[in-house]
Sequence to fold (212 residues):
Amino acid sequence: MLGRIDEYADAAREHLETIHSDREKAYTTSREVVQAASATIKAVHREEFDAAREQVEKTHALHDRMMEAVEASPVIGYSGVVGDAAREYAEAALVLALIADNELPGPADIGVDHADWLNGLGDTVGELRRHVLDLIRQDEVDDAEKYLQMMDEIHQTLMSFDYPQAVTKGLRTRTDQARGAVERTRGDLTNALRQSRLERRMRELEEALGDG
Fold:
């Protein structure tokens, strides 16, 4: 009755070895995707846009390599570290476009699915908040207002997707986080605007008194 057990076992071993190899490739590459995406965002905040573009191209290539492994062995699944890496890549590509004043790429442009694109867009709100705070510190309040408007528009867009978390890969959570970031940033910018106007009035007063 067990005459072909070795044959079946060898076939199973070969199949599982292939899955294991693809899994290791996907997981190892996912970590590289996350690292490259992080390097992209750091370069953006330093306004090193050429370096950021090179990094996002590297991230794109790594993402494609990761997805080749997943497609070769679909049993690996797309959740967990693979899905997280895809979202991080989408975020990096979108942050670069928004802060460098480039056209916003769509899901097909960067090779991710719609849910990952939406979640990556949601994560950009935190990076835009960071950029707004940098602009406030540089006393570039007018430019900061533009990015607050972007944050608000992104939040409003995300709110229009009323689907289960399983369908959107957790988009509702990111939408809630975006709302909090928008509210805090609006408060920070309002205070900065008041301070800027006060300082301007004081300078005008000093100049008027000096002329008198």
